[in-house]
Amino acid sequence: MSDETPTPDQDPKDPQDTVSSVALEDGMDAATLEKALADGKGRNIDALYNVKLDVRVVLGRSRMSISDLLDLTRGSVIELDRKVGDPIDIMINDRMVARGDLVKVNGDFIGVALREIVKDFIPGN
After folding, report:
1. Which branch of life, at top level (predicted)?
2. Is 55-121 a domain of CATH 3.60.20.10?
3. What DSSP string describes 54-91?
């Protein structure tokens, strides 16, 4: 958050200023945020469209000792806890939200085709 001293016309504890500075640091456009705050006291979902989330695709996991880790060299193979063809996990902010399969897209790039949405992620289910 910003450590700037408030100007005389600002209330130092104004929650709108705090929300604005957090949203701007997270990459949200100031105009979008101001419009959302003005329309329905911040209840407009459009304000959330620019919020960035950490998305990870987890192929598998492995545990190894520090000595095994230090022995890794180019060409070393790390055995994972998944088999070929098993679905991979899609994590958003450290929470599994879906499973999918690796697919080839646009030449040499890979992507994930969603196979299922994790029901625990959907509120109310």
Report:
1. Bacteria
2. no
3. -EEEE-------HHHHHT--TT-----S--TTPPEEEE
